[in-house]
Specification:
Blueprint lengths: L38 H19 L4 E2 L2 E2 L1 E4 L4 E4 L2 E3 L4 H22 L2 H5 L2 H17 L2 H9 L4 H26 L5 H9 L5 H21 L1 H7 L2 H4 L10 E4 L1 H4 L9 H6 L13 H4 L20 H12 L7 E4 L1 H5 L4 H6 L4 H22 L4 E7 L6 E2 L4 E12 L5 E8 L5 E2 L4 E4 L4 E11 L6 E12 L8 E10 L2
Antiparallel strand pairs: 1-2, 3-4, 4-5, 6-7, 8-10, 9-10, 10-14, 11-13, 11-15, 12-14, 15-16
Helix pairs in contact: 1-4, 2-17, 4-6, 4-8, 6-8
C-alpha cells in the first residue's frame, strides 16, 4: 500500500511591522503664561500684596520690648502679640489648624479652588517670579523665541539677571521665615556680619531654594502632582459649587471670526458660535489647560481665562462671560447670579459653617479665659519621705511655675489636705516676665498624725500684689506619702 502524497498548503506572506518605541513618561512641555489684565487679575495681585505685606512685615512689628510674633523654640515660648503660649498650650495651635482646614473645606464647597487661585503661597510666589521674568525677558512670545534660539550674550545676561533676582527673593523669603523663630533684627545683623549659626543657615537656604525651585521652575507641576489638595478637592465639589466654566452652548461650534461680524453678533446660531478659537484662554492659563474641554482637576480657579476671554468678546462686540464663574446646576438651567446665590447656603455649607463657628468660638473663648499662670508638680523621686528636724515627716517636690504675663510676678505657695500640713521651704517665689522657674518645695506634717500610705494634697499658688483686680489662683493635686 503506497502512501498518498502530502498536500502542501502555501503560507501567506506576513507583513513585518517595525517596532515602535512608546515612552512611558513624556517630557513636560514648558508653559509660558501670557500676561493678562482684568478683574480677577487685579484681585490676584491685591492678594499678592496683602499676603506678602503680612508675611514680610509681621516679624518687624514690636510689642513692648520684644518682637510681636515670635516662636522661640529654644525657650519654648510662643509670642503672639499680647499672648505668651507654652508647649502646654499646644491645644490652641491644634484648634487653629482645624479651623484653617474647615475654612478651606467651606471655601471649596462654595467657590471651588478659591484658595489655590488667589492666596496659596505657590500661586503667590509664582506670580511674583513670573512678574520678574516678564520684566527681564519680555512677554510670552519673546521668552519662547529666546529659549528656542542659541545662546547669545543678550540671552545669557537676561537669564543671569532673572535667576539672580529670583535667588534674592528666595533668600529674602528664607530669612523672613527663620525670622519668625529667631529675632529678625538680630538675624539680619548676624547675616550681615557672617555670624549665623549652622541651623539658621540651613533653614534659610532650605526655604530660600525651595521658593526658588517651586516658583521659578516647577510652578504648575507642584499644583498638578505634588499638592494633595488637587486630589481630594472633588470630594468637596457638588453641582452648586462655583467653578470656571465655558459656555459650550453659546460658544460652539467654535471657529475664526466671520467677516459678517454684525450678522453673527445678532444671531449667534446663524453660522458659528461666539468662540473665535483664538486660544488665548490656553495661553494665559498657568497650568496650561484648555478650559473649553470642561472641568479639569488642574484648574486652580484663578480666573485668568475669564479676563482674557472678556477682552476678546469686547473687541468683537460679543456678550461677555463666554467663560465665567458659575455652577453646573446654574449652567444647565441657564440660571443667573440670583439663582446661584439661592443655592449657596445648602446643607453641606451649613454644616461646615456651624462647625467652623463653634470651633472658632471655643478657641477664642479658651484664649480669653486662659489662666496666665501654669503650675506643674513633680515629686522628687530621690527623697520619697523622710524625718526632718523636730520630728516632722517631710515630702519633697519640685514645682514648675510659669508666668505667662509680660510683667514680673510674685507668687505665694501654700498646701492643704492633711492636718497640720505646712510649707517648710520658701513660700514667696518671684518669676520674671514670660519665664518659668523650678522651685523645690518641702511639705511637712507631724509624725504619726496621718495613717501610712498615700494621701491626696493640694498645692495652692496665688498671685501677690494683684492691684485692684482679683488675684490669680491655681490649685494642683499631689500625693503625700506616709511610710509604715
Amino acid at each position: 500500500m503506497t502512501d498518498s502524497p502530502k498536500k502542501i498548503i502555501p503560507i501567506a506572506a506576513v507583513e513585518v511591522v517595525e517596532e515602535v518605541l512608546v515612552p512611558l513618561y513624556a517630557s513636560q512641555e514648558k508653559i509660558y503664561p501670557r500676561s493678562v489684565s482684568g478683574l480677577f487679575s487685579r484681585w490676584r495681585w491685591a492678594l499678592v500684596w496683602i499676603t506678602q505685606l503680612v508675611f514680610y512685615g509681621l516679624p518687624w512689628l514690636d510689642w513692648g520690648q520684644r518682637q510681636a510674633v515670635l516662636f522661640d523654640l529654644g525657650a519654648r515660648r510662643f509670642y503672639i502679640f499680647n499672648l505668651v503660649l507654652y508647649p502646654q498650650d499646644f491645644i490652641y495651635l491644634t484648634g487653629l489648624l482645624v479651623i484653617c482646614a474647615l475654612s478651606l473645606f467651606l471655601f471649596t464647597a462654595v467657590a471651588g479652588r478659591l484658595w489655590c487661585g488667589f492666596a496659596c503661597p505657590q500661586t503667590v510666589y509664582t506670580e511674583i517670579f513670573l512678574w520678574i521674568e516678564r520684566h527681564v525677558e519680555g512677554d510670552r512670545q519673546a521668552r519662547m523665541r529666546r529659549d528656542a534660539g542659541p545662546m547669545t550674550l543678550d540671552k545669557a545676561v537676561k537669564k543671569s539677571t532673572k535667576h539672580a533676582l529670583w535667588l534674592l527673593v528666595g533668600l529674602w523669603t528664607g530669612i523672613t521665615f527663620v525670622g519668625y523663630f529667631s529675632p529678625i533684627r538680630g538675624l539680619w545683623a548676624e547675616a550681615l556680619g557672617h555670624q549665623l549659626g549652622g541651623w539658621e543657615v540651613f533653614w534659610i537656604l532650605f526655604y530660600g531654594f525651595a521658593t526658588y525651585g517651586n516658583a521659578g521652575f516647577m510652578r504648575e507641576q507642584v499644583c498638578k502632582y505634588m499638592c494633595p489638595y488637587a486630589r481630594f478637592q472633588s470630594a468637596m465639589f457638588d453641582k452648586d459649587t462655583l467653578i470656571v466654566s465655558y459656555d459650550a452652548e453659546r460658544g460652539e461650534p467654535r471657529g475664526k471670526l466671520s467677516k459678517h461680524v454684525d450678522d453673527q453678533a445678532k444671531d449667534p446660531h446663524k453660522s458659528k458660535g461666539h468662540c473665535v478659537d483664538c486660544t488665548l484662554c490656553v495661553q494665559v492659563c498657568p497650568t496650561g489647560i484648555d478650559i473649553r474641554n470642561g472641568l479639569q482637576y488642574e484648574c486652580i480657579g484663578c480666573g485668568a481665562c475669564i479676563d482674557v476671554c472678556n477682552e476678546v468678546m469686547d473687541k468683537v462686540n460679543f456678550q461677555r462671560n463666554l467663560i465665567h464663574f458659575t455652577t453646573q446646576n446654574a449652567q444647565a438651567e441657564h440660571g443667573d447670579a440670583d439663582n446661584i446665590l439661592q443655592h449657596v447656603f445648602r446643607p453641606r455649607v451649613g454644616v461646615y459653617l456651624l462647625v467652623l463657628l463653634a470651633l472658632t468660638a471655643g478657641v477664642l473663648g479658651g484664649l480669653l479665659s486662659r489662666m496666665p499662670l501654669k503650675v506643674d508638680v513633680v515629686r522628687d523621686r530621690g527623697v520619697l519621705a523622710r524625718l526632718a528636724e523636730g520630728g516632722r515627716l517631710e515630702n519633697v517636690y519640685r514645682l514648675q511655675i510659669m508666668n505667662a504675663t509680660e510683667l514680673p510676678q510674685t507668687y505665694h505657695l501654700a498646701a492643704e489636705g492633711l492636718p497640720g500640713l505646712s510649707v517648710a521651704s520658701e513660700q514667696d517665689v518671684q518669676v520674671g516676665p514670660a519665664e518659668s522657674r523650678w522651685v523645690p518645695v518641702r511639705l511637712q506634717i507631724e509624725d504619726g498624725s496621718a495613717d501610712s500610705g498615700s494621701h491626696s494634697v493640694r498645692f495652692m499658688v496665688t498671685e501677690v500684689d494683684a492691684d485692684q483686680r482679683k488675684p490669680i489662683h491655681v490649685t494642683e493635686k499631689a500625693t503625700f506619702l506616709v511610710p509604715r
